[in-house]
Design goal:
Layout (H helix, E strand, L loop, with lengths): L1 E2 L1 H11 L11 H12 L2 E2 L9 H7 L7 H9 L4 E5 L3 E5 L3 H14 L8 H14 L2 E2 L8 E2 L2 E2 L2 H13 L4 E6 L2 E5 L1 H4 L11 H16 L4 H4 L7 H13 L4 E5 L7 E3 L1 H5 L9 E3 L10 H8 L21 E5 L2 E11 L4 E9 L7 H17 L4 E4 L2 E2 L2 H7 L8
Parallel strand pairs: 1-10, 15-16, 15-17
Antiparallel strand pairs: 2-4, 3-4, 5-9, 6-7, 8-9, 10-11, 12-13, 13-14, 14-15
Helix pairs in contact: 1-9, 6-7, 9-11, 14-15
Length: 400
């Protein structure tokens, strides 16, 4: 079937939960709904503002606090930490679908680090005997196979054992993982059977469509090339059975995308415009080429660039307004003073700025400041320049 670019945008953003404010409800139940819809939320350590996984959840789950996620991981056992295209939080019920990746890592020999077998055995045996441990519990000097022991090889061994599924994360202390054996982490009654190839392929395909609304083959196996053969094997069957639809975009290159009948049926007819300040690692924008294709928005993080080469700022966030990405802002939470510093705010020249957008942006900045533990925000530079004064002037938050 053929759809318009506007319909494609609605399909994508509705699937991401970004067309209506906090569409998943509140609290832990909302967090689980978000994780179930998105499939995963990427973890990132950068802390100039609240970390990416909390930021992504806050944009979708009402009344979200960072402590919720860690409680659901460590105490409730409803959240699992593992790997998607990167380190991520997933619904615990998806555990069995992670076994495919775990077996791949094990057969490949290692994920990131070729770790000495004796080091892995030593680390694993200590956790078997002592219970859950952090990487820091392996510090100090000692000898192992004639080599000086230090923290680095232990951390590498922990990561590799985690990727192989021999250890799981049982809790987090801020950004420190506590590792334990799967049988001491997994809740009772959870299905740990290895999915059949067709079931695993369906999981990859349908979870990607559920999260993104409309996907290319490359989007499904993004940074996970080992799953590509499985998808290619079963995709034609699912298309033949009508479980998956092939879609092209009207007046475009004719590139083929995939969706499901329920995604098409649930496509919203109207758009309730709202401003979202998205994390650079948000599920909606993490695939930059996809973002450019569907939204004509060229976005790259400038984290790794030297300061003099940055155009938008160290941690510039995309600004979504309705179905359009309209600009970027570079924030930093200065928690000692309680101020969210907006180092740079730039709206694209093509964007028509009206009162509705101004108030929506002002409210979004106010809410974002509170989420980051700040009482107010302060803008240093903006484009257009009048935004600095207009958005910063004292006023009641809300529509005019």
């Amino acid at each position: 079937m053929e759809i318009t670019l506007f319909e494609a945008r609605k399909l994508i953003l509705a699937s991401q939960g970004l067309l209506n404010k906090k569409p998943f409800g509140k609290g832990k139940r909302a967090v689980l709904k978000v994780l179930d819809r998105l499939g995963y939320v990427q973890i990132d350590a950068i802390s100039v503002i609240e970390r990416a996984h909390h930021h992504t959840l806050w944009n979708r789950a009402g009344n979200y606090k960072p402590g919720l996620l860690y409680a659901m991981l460590g105490r409730d056992r409803t959240v699992l930490e593992y790997w998607s295209h990167a380190a991520a939080f997933l619904p615990m019920k998806h555990y069995r679908f992670c076994l495919h990746t775990m077996h791949h890592i094990k057969s490949a020999g290692h994920h990131w680090y070729p770790v000495d077998t004796q080091v892995k055995t030593y680390v694993y045996d200590r956790i078997v005997g002592e219970g859950a441990l952090y990487a820091r519990d392996f510090g100090g000097n000692g000898k192992l196979s004639g080599k000086m022991w230090d923290l680095k090889p232990a951390k590498q061994a922990l990561h590799e054992l985690f990727m192989e599924g021999k250890l799981l994360v049982s809790a987090r202390d801020n950004f420190h993982r506590r590792y334990d054996l799967p049988e001491r982490v997994l809740p009772s009654g959870i299905d740990t059977s290895l999915p059949a190839p067709r079931e695993q392929a369906a999981y990859y395909l349908l979870s990607a469509i559920k999260a993104q609304g409309l996907v290319s083959l490359g989007a499904i196996h993004y940074l996970r090339n080992w799953i590509k053969p499985l998808i290619q094997q079963y995709l034609p069957e699912f298309i033949e059975e009508g479980k998956i639809l092939q879609v092209t975009i009207h007046k475009s290159s004719g590139k083929v995308f995939y969706t499901t009948p329920d995604r098409i049926e649930q496509m919203p007819k109207r758009v309730n415009k709202a401003v979202y300040l998205l994390s650079p690692f948000d599920n909606a924008i993490i695939q930059r080429k996809r973002l450019a294709y569907f939204f004509n928005f060229d976005y790259q993080t400038e984290i790794y660039l030297p300061a003099h080469k940055r155009v938008y700022g160290y941690f510039a966030l995309p600004i979504l307004w309705g179905t359009e990405f309209i600009g970027r802002l570079d924030p930093k939470a200065v928690r000692k003073t309680g101020v969210l510093a907006i180092n740079n705010l730039q709206i694209e020249p093509r964007v028509k700025i009206n009162d509705q957008l101004l108030w929506a942006l002002k409210n979004a900045l106010h809410d974002f400041a509170l989420f980051n533990g700040c009482e107010s925000f302060q803008i240093s530079k903006s484009e257009p320049a009048f935004l600095t004064a207009w958005l910063s002037k004292p006023s009641d938050i809300g529509a005019p």
